[in-house]
Amino acid sequence: MNTFPDYDLPRIKAVSAGGGFTLMLDESGVVWSIGKNSSGQLGIGSRAVRKPLDQPDKAGKKKIEGKEPLDQPDKAGKMKLKGKVKAISAGMSHSLLLLENGEAWAVGHNGQGQCTQSENKSEHTHTPRQIRGMANAKEQKEPKVKDVSAGRYFSLILLENGDVWAVGDNTGGNLGIEGKEESNCVLKPGKINIDGKVKAISAGHLHSLLLLESGEVFAVGCNYYGQLGIETTGEFYRFPVKMKMHPDAKVKAVSAGEHHSLMLEENGDVWVVGSRGANASDRDTHTPVKIDMNAKVAAISGCSAISLMLLENGEVWGMGYNINKQLGIGKWTQTSSQITPAKMQINPYKKKSPSYFCW
Predict the structure, then answer these.
(1) Which residues on adjacent β-strands are paired with residue 35?
(2) Domains in the chain and their CATH numbers?
(3) Is residue 194 within 8 Å of residue 250, measured between CB atoms?
(4) CA of 260: how far to CAs of 116, 288, 296, 345, in Å?
(5) Alpha helices in the chain (DSSP H)
(6) What is the pLDDT of residues 191-227, one digit of tens each?
(7) What integer pLDDT is reported at residue 62 of this predicted model?
(8) Is 128 exposed, middle or buried (0-12, 13-18, 19+ CB in 10 A)?
(9) Which tens digits make up the pLDDT trace of 18-38?
């Protein structure tokens, strides 16, 4: 089904799935959004509460037909932004946007301060606003941002100089900000102190992953499932700790899932640590283990309780929780997880238009 308006179907170059909503970035730098909008996370200027179909209207008749409220539109809408976007990241109920000019913007749920700029942390924002507060004392202008990553209720911001800033929910110590160890919510961005320049970030449920230019991986936050990869479990680590990868590891990408972590090496190997099922095992692991793929992996994504791998040949493989058939492997795993990688069964529905298809 085509979820875009009937005019000028855009060519999408990036997507990000959040908690019941989806962000799509087209080639022109426009962000499209669709799905749940109860906190304004779609950035379309409204969070109207959807009226149930069995609820009588003013005339006493049941509301069966009519225009769909903006809380959960049927068609994707353009996000209201002044400037072209080059990266997107969807959290549980907030959205992060990186503009081409190096500005970071946020919209949606702000109950833990993840969108910043508000003394009232419960005040949600329905139109995107710039994340500020990262300039040093000598500079008035905000530094340029390289990347953004939305966690469950927190946000990570990677600057072009390799510094990482964090804001929002800090329940598991996942922000890693010195002086904020006992703060459950941080309303203004704080810098994560780490020895080395960071080149990539990934925000999970209650933990954060930081990939240094040296190829080392650091993690911070909840470690109840071993997701920090430090050979132990059961604690909150409120400052970054080095993950125990093998000595010759050269990691080029990281991805934080709900309670697990994925690491992709330059040679195409994938390593995983944390909660069972998504970690290629029927038990939690606290030391990274290699996923036996027998093929080179080009990209990784750790989702709620699943792990996805895009191979260099274009195939998609997954493992983990599959009760809703989210792995797309042609079978339903009702009572347990898919603990070995399985190939996603993709059958594209080809249309006459060379520029658009869906499945």
Answers:
(1) 21
(2) 12-47+69-343 (2.130.10.30)
(3) no
(4) 27, 10, 21, 24
(5) none
(6) 999 999 999 999 999 999 999 999 999 999 999 999 9
(7) 33
(8) buried
(9) 999 999 999 999 999 999 999
